[in-house]
Amino acid sequence: MYGKVCSVHVKIKCEMLIEIEVTLLSGVRFIHAADLHLDSPFSGLKDMPSSILKELRESPFKAFQTIINEAISLQVDFIVLSGDLFDGENRSLRTQVRFRTEMEKLQKHQIPAYIIHGNHDHLSGSWITVELPDNVHVFSGQTEVKRFEKIDGTTVHLYGFSYPRRHVRERMIETYIKAEGADYHIGLLHGNLEGNSEHSPYAPFSLKELAARDFDYWALGHIHKHQVVSEDPLVIYPGNIQGRNRKESGVKGCMLVEFDEDMKRHSFIETSEVIWESETIEITADGGFDALFKQCREVIERKGFDGRSFLLELKLDAGDAAGASGEYLEELTRILQEEDQGESFVWVYKIKVIQSMPMIRSNETLLPFMAEVSMLASEFVDTDAALAQLYIHPGARRFLDTIEPKEQRELVDEAERWLLQVFDVNK
């Protein structure tokens, strides 16, 4: 229960009533979400039934509807959306109208929304403007403060900025200046915490810089994995609301945050309609097809009992044994994909074999080749130069995700493993 300004009556012996006004700090309750990516194209998913593909493309909208319904059900004071509401800089009319519809639902319940735009939906894009209801407060391209006040007089200052262009490399954290005169202070920031080399360094900041602002809460966006960065000060990345590819695996959602007097509470609300996951199955060289097929079916059935929808990658751990051929795996994948699907589905989108790096055998003719493969793999730096033209192409870039350093390393290791396996097997 939130504190409030109230009147306390004290009865004393002379039967006189003394009215004492006691001021208690009232609380606030809000939802923090980020990285909605409402118009994600979900490209590159071949052989997927149209019904499942349709469900997947609709999943970010359904996840967002879950957030709005939770906000109304929980009677929050407001919601904050910390960037990348839209996947592309050129927002479609359909997506904007659907977003407005959800904002209008909030308006009917007197729930404001405070919004910043990030690197994906920056302000320099080209789109037809759709007017939003009065309860929506969008931060401009320069850091500013917006004031929220409850009926009981509790006040909140919210700080933030929207990306004026796609790439913001400046330390925008330096422009967040605490404005006195509010009970609570909340910073909205779409950017990268220093030390996280797996993500592009947009609007970089350090935890020390966040703490120096003396805010009650930092509503972060940009990182798609849920992270409670710090409890004091309270700093949270909620992650995105719906996984869009295999790199964004696991349950996705938003945060419910509550302040009450000196207490701060936060809880995670699941929103993902479809969950990307991977499962590892240990196999042996003499197991045969039927044994492998049974193992795959057992994993799928176990996921199906969950009642949620999954896009599943199966990893076959073959140890040092020779792996199955690509043709064999493709056929097994197709067989599993032909299984009946209900309202919730478990769709196997890929099967891959995990093998330990083959031992280089004493084949004198192959040794130079294998040594060169290993040398090239160790010297590999990045793919930025090779892919630069694709990422600036106006038609292609909206379908491309950044290849992070960790994924680059995994791709190189997989290529090296495959080459050594091809030339070393059955020697």
UniProtKB/TrEMBL annotation:
Keyword Hydrolase: yes
Keyword terms: Exonuclease, Hydrolase, Nuclease
Signal peptide: none
InterPro entries for the chain: Calcineurin-like_PHP, DNA_Repair-Maintenance_Comp, Metallo-depent_PP-like, Mre11_N, Pesterase_YhaO
Gene Ontology molecular function: exonuclease activity
PANTHER family the UniProt entry points to: COMPONENT OF ATP-DEPENDENT DSDNA EXONUCLEASE, PHOSPHOESTERASE
Protein name: DNA repair exonuclease
Domain Calcineurin-like phosphoesterase: 29-225
Domain of life: Bacteria
